[in-house]
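Revision sheet: structure tokens.
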Amino acid sequence: MKLVALAFTLLFGASLCAQGPATMGASEIRAGMKGYGRTVFQGGKIERFDFEVLGVQKNAAPGRSRIMVRASGGPLAETGILAGMSGSPCYIDGKLIGALSTGIAFEKEAIGGITPIAEMLDQLRDIPETAPSRTPLILPKLEPPKVLKSALTGQMLDFRALMGDPDPQALSMSIAGSALGAEVQRLWAGLPVTFAAAPVMSGSREEASPLEPGGMVAVTLMQGDLDLAAAGTITYVSGKRILLFGHQLFNLGPVDLPLWSATVASTVASYQSSFKMAMPVAPIGALRLDRSSGVAGLLGAEARMVPLRIGLNLGGKRTLNFRFEIMDHPVVTPALAATAVAQTLEAHTRGLGFQSLSMQGNIKLAGHPAIQIENVIADLNSLRMAQYVGGILQAVSFNPFERPVFEGISLTIKAEERLDLTGIAGIRLLKARAKRGEVLPVLVTLQNIQGVRETATFNIQVPSSAAKGKAILMVGDGFSLMAADPDERMIEVASLNDMVRILNGALRNNHAYALLVQAQPGAGLRGSRIEGIPPTVASLVGGDGASSDNRLQRRIVGRAVLPLEREVRGLSQLEVEIE
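Predicted:
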């Protein structure tokens, strides 16, 4: 017994040195060995399933192994390995060998992989007692940062762009709760998740599984007027410390996520990937560590949620108010907020005909100015409005300077059964030349959906600092102009305050803008521009942020704005001679 306790302490570290089961290493396991696992197939009852070892896949990842098994028992002959079984503890001769963690899509047999327990204990030995104070994410420095540019054009990056392709053998995460439309589910593209419509019995009388190996737990992503939760299985419990899943949630290291006990309403067989329809029952603690070999948490701890309020005005006839609490997580918070916006609009606005949506609101950050929200969408695509919100939250969440503390998100959306849309039909100048220091009148032709045209006038100041020669006059909506990169100089971002300033000063899609743009030669050195140097020297120094890029760079030398309070689409440009 002393030898067993000593071996366990060496594996698990001082932070998890309580009594536990004997373990068996992957090197001791041979093909043909038989064992059993523990999991929940229905309600809260933990049941046994059997397995036979097919072999040990060495170097499934550098320095990592995977124990391949064929499982049987319960519904597995019909369903195969179920999403939601991740973390199910597996034993041979009464010794814990690891957690079931992978399956095979479209499998005809219940064949899966087990993460060796030694790998889980090695990565999860230091469970933080308190929530992390900083995000572990560091945004690569791009010119400009890709995530920031995406937000400035009203878009959000999908999970594949943020995290790369998922492990094709990883069991998909079953997210149960409120039914989500097919369009809303597209916000989660690139993440191995399966959505299942199921009632979420928060604080219900449903039977919760025991908090012991094989028990079912759920990570609550969102609660309130929309419920979503991801479920998995407990691998090990030691005092108030708990190990789960046998694979990563997002592999972000220290995290702070709410953890609930859970029950299984049903298992759902699928040719692609079967899953448990699991539901959270009551809060039990918080996840604190997320690694590639599993996740770990503390029972009795509390995780902080981000409050989100959406007020929906239906054509001035009535106003509906919705309240949500969403998980505070740099990767998932933007997707959850976008999901709440899109699902609210899909549920309460029309699906055919003319419709315009206008949004105003703010995102409150502790210690920083609030981020102002303003957008107009003149069509039935609720995802455009949702991605606008999600993109801004991504830009803030993925900043490399400090972890943002979201105090709350407040949005007011007005839905009108008409099409508030204006297109840029053309622009013209009264003269093709302009002197430095004078005002240049610009006539822009606007056209609505019925084809009715009107003319508006911009007065754009040509600065005395403008260079003599050619300039380009660009007129369009804010998103189209940002996508066209009218100003290619380096974006100076040195703090979260700078990010907030850029987002609050962004061009909007409910205004028309006139930008006077000139190209100038130059090069960059350690982030600063060197003006007017010879081309031969510039070829050695290199352009801003890229040693092989010596082309002329555009910069905005003058601008004017025409507020229209309806969605503007289109981009036109003319050449102007500056004297």
